[in-house]
Amino acid sequence: MDKKRLKTYRDRLLEERASLLGVVGRNEDYGREADTEATQDPADKASNSYTKELLFSQSTNDRIILTQIEEALERMEDEEYGVCLNCGQEIQPKRLDAVPWTRYCITCQDLQERGLLDEE
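RESULT FIELD:
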């Protein structure tokens, strides 16, 4: 992969990482605020509980993507970025454009989503 394209992916990964770090921090703050609100109304308690659960779910997904972004940045440092971790084939540029933190080519990603990929 040429250095210009690699720099473009690195910049996108760093930008996405910064954005997700902000979102995760805000979600944690909102979750703490919901904990400290002293409401006696059962409807308010249910609403707060739902909000906390939703924020927790979003935060979990964001943390997974953050981990994948960190791994992608490490693969860049190791000069292994853009190569499928399963089959070793080059990942298509269109796939990297869509999901720059991807670990797998489209074929192996399909296998992974169906639970057929033997991950270590």
